[in-house]
UniProtKB/TrEMBL annotation:
Keywords: Aminoacyl-tRNA synthetase, ATP-binding, Ligase, Nucleotide-binding, Protein biosynthesis, RNA-binding, tRNA-binding
Keyword Nucleotide-binding: yes
Protein name per its UniProtKB record: alanine--tRNA ligase
Listed Pfam families: tRNA-synt_2c, tRNA_SAD
Natural source organism: Candidatus Gottesmanbacteria bacterium RIFCSPHIGHO2_02_FULL_40_13
Family under the similarity heading: Belongs to the class-II aminoacyl-tRNA synthetase family.
PANTHER family assigned to the protein according to its UniProt record, in alphabetical order: ALANINE--TRNA LIGASE, CYTOPLASMIC (PTHR11777:SF9), ALANYL-TRNA SYNTHETASE (PTHR11777)
Domain of life the protein comes from: Bacteria
Length: 617
């Protein structure tokens, strides 16, 4: 089954009666108004305000296919099932249906629409603890579902690889919070105040052709890492919200947050445990085989081919959203993906330059997702390949020198690793990986000490990031987001109507706004921009929100972000008679609450694009 077919089947299934969902567009993988994370890593992330009770313009039943990226999986890529970039098929109930409908509908989709054998489906449920009781409701629902297809679903308590309990002894498996509880921060004790979460129920597909590997334990069970089972969907029941005193209270509206990886569902329908053999990846694999003269069927070629395919796919999507390679935050992750791909290309000994290979791979990825998320025939797509080429060229110039230096060293200590980063632009993770491949010792203690001095290079230590909680709706973020509206309209008034938003990012310290403009702003233009924004703040303009049809919003001259797909109904925020935008982010009620607007920096952000950093003081 192709990715286009499966994606359509899923969305159509939830559009149909009696489910009657509304399709919402994928949010960007680079969040605009969430300083707690670098990337959109799940379908629920853009929907947090609505899971907490805010009304969604399209109602209480939603479905989508969300572009997602998980940086924490970079080092896991190389096996047959891990990827950093993926699509998460999702459906949500915002205070509407709950466990009974959700579990039955998903099972119906798997067995009736995708025609999966129910005998190959196993499920997990939350076992409960002193804080939250066992999810007996889900257990009983699953028993009824399996009974309807003639399967006696026995329940297994707390399975593990060394417990002596095998998967063949049960169908419903109970696991602790570490496996069957979902929130953005993890188990209940890790959740910050304000964060929603709840027990979940996962569905696993059994690849009977893969025997259990004893190195993962004596017995196999759904959460075993041997590859015999693959998780293909997770229904999260968002019932609780963490309080300041550490307790969990039930949300007034109980929600369903379902996510199922498109890549993994395709693997299940094809009964093929290698996700890289689906049409979402294999065209790139075939290209790499042609360029290298090496076969994917050879196990030694599989890890580098998978890494290149995944990493350059993720890089292509990041570049498509206007991200530039850099030395901190998202830009650092993008650079790391590209440079790791270049190293793996050298391992394959390609018969062309890595720049040429990178361009061809990017073009193939564009064709895979053509008219879904990417538009390879456009001028904007040529900017993607141009930026990718420049980054590869920059790294190629120093790669061989860095590798030769590494090969000469019996020990890669912290200072050398840091010097490689500073001198050659080697991400520290890449240095560690290359050293380990050569059997060289790594002094992690000194390495970490050196790197700690430059924590801004790490995605986990960026200012304002990863503090947890719903900081995207804090007072500071709300004020900065509202100021971004004033900034865009002011830029259009001063520079011209050609100015359109290309990207936006907000942390608790500042806003960043990327926009179309062919040249550097003059000092006078910057002063004029500050003056007008502060004037509109001083006027204390009212911020009004209305929900309207997208077509009507466009007729009323509401600004949108080019390239973003919007739902049929949208929120429109108007700031007096000065600014009008289609937007879903948080806003203040009056501009007088913002404070003083100050531009910190103005710089280039790619071809015909500029970037402004600003803050409120």
């Amino acid at each position: 089954m192709t990715h286009r077919e499966l994606r359509k089947k899923y969305l159509d299934f939830f559009l149909e009666s009696p489910r009657n969902h509304q399709v919402i567009p994928s949010a960007p993988i680079i969040p605009e108004n969430d300083p707690t994370t670098l990337f959109t890593s799940s379908g629920m992330q853009p929907l947090i305000p609505f899971l907490l009770g805010e009304k969604h313009p399209l109602g209480q039943r939603l479905t989508d296919s969300q572009k997602s990226f998980r940086a924490q999986d970079i080092n896991e890529v190389g096996d047959n099932r891990h990827s950093t970039f993926f699509e998460m098929l999702g459906n949500w109930s915002l205070g509407d249906y709950f466990k009974n409908d959700q579990l039955r509908w998903f099972f119906t989709f798997l067995t009736k629409v995708l025609k999966l054998d129910p005998n190959k489906l196993y499920v997990t449920v939350y076992e409960g603890d002193q804080i939250v009781p066992k999810d007996t409701e889900s257990v009983e629902i699953w028993k009824e579902i399996y009974a309807s297809v003639g399967i006696d679903a026995k329940v297994v308590d707390s399975p593990s690889s060394n417990s002596g309990t095998s998967a063949k002894q049960g169908r419903i498996f109970l696991y602790p919070a570490s496996k069957n509880w979902w929130s953005r921060s993890g188990e209940p004790e890790k959740m910050p105040p304000g964060e929603p979460g709840g027990p979940d129920s996962e569905v696993f597909f059994e690849f009977t052709q893969i025997p259990h590997d004893p190195k993962f334990g004596k017995q196999c069970h759904p959460n075993c890492e041997c590859g015999h089972f693959l998780e293909i969907g997770n229904s999260v029941f968002m019932q609780y919200q963490k309080q300041a005193d550490g307790t969990l209270t039930e949300l007034p509206n109980k929600n369903v947050d379902f996510g199922g990886g498109l890549e993994r569902l395709i693997a299940a329908t094809e009964n093929n445990p290698d996700i890289f053999q689906s049409d979402l990846f294999f065209p790139v694999i075939e290209l790499l085989s042609r360029l290298s003269g090496k076969k994917y069927s050879d196990p030694i070629n599989q890890p580098p081919m998978r890494i290149i395919t995944d990493h350059l796919k993720a890089a292509t999507f990041m570049l498509a959203e206007g991200l530039q390679p850099g030395n901190k935050q998202q830009g650092y992750i993008l650079r790391r993906l590209i440079r790791r791909s270049v190293v793996k290309m050298h391992k394959l000994h390609l018969q062309c330059s890595t720049i040429e290979a990178g361009i061809q791979i990017c073009q193939v990825i564009g064709q895979i997702y053509s008219n879904v998320y990417l538009y390879p025939e456009t001028k904007e797509f040529s900017n993607i390949t141009s930026t990718l080429s420049e980054e590869i060229k920059r790294f190629e110039q120093v790669l061989n020198k860095g590798i030769k230096l590494l090969e000469k060293q019996p020990v890669v200590d912290g200072k050398l690793a840091f010097d490689l980063l500073q001198t050659y632009g080697f991400p520290w993770e890449l240095t560690a990986e290359l050293a380990l491949e050569r059997g060289q010792k790594i002094d992690f203690g000194e390495f970490q000490k050196e790197f700690q001095k430059h924590q801004e290079l790490s995605r986990n230590t960026s200012k304002g990031m990863f503090k947890g909680g719903l900081q995207n709706h804090s007072e500071v973020i709300t004020r900065l987001h509202t100021a971004t509206h004033l900034l865009q309209q002011t830029l259009r008034d001063i520079l011209g109507d050609h100015v359109r938003q290309k990207g936006s990012n907000i942390t608790v310290q500042r806003l960043r706004f990327d926009f179309t403009h062919p040249k550097k702003l003059t000092d006078q233009e910057i002063l004029d921009i500050e003056k007008i924004v502060n004037l509109k703040i001083k006027e204390n303009l009212r911020v009004n929100m209305s929900i309207t049809e997208l077509e009507q919003a466009l007729k009323n001259s509401a600004l949108t972000v080019p390239g973003v797909k919007y739902p049929a109904k949208v929120k429109v925020y108007s700031i007096g008679n000065f600014s009008k935008e289609v937007c879903g982010g948080p806003h203040v009620d009056f501009t007088g609450l913002l404070g003083k607007f100050k531009i910190i920096k103005e710089e280039a952000a790619g071809s015909n694009s500029r970037r402004i950093y600003a803050t409120l003081i």
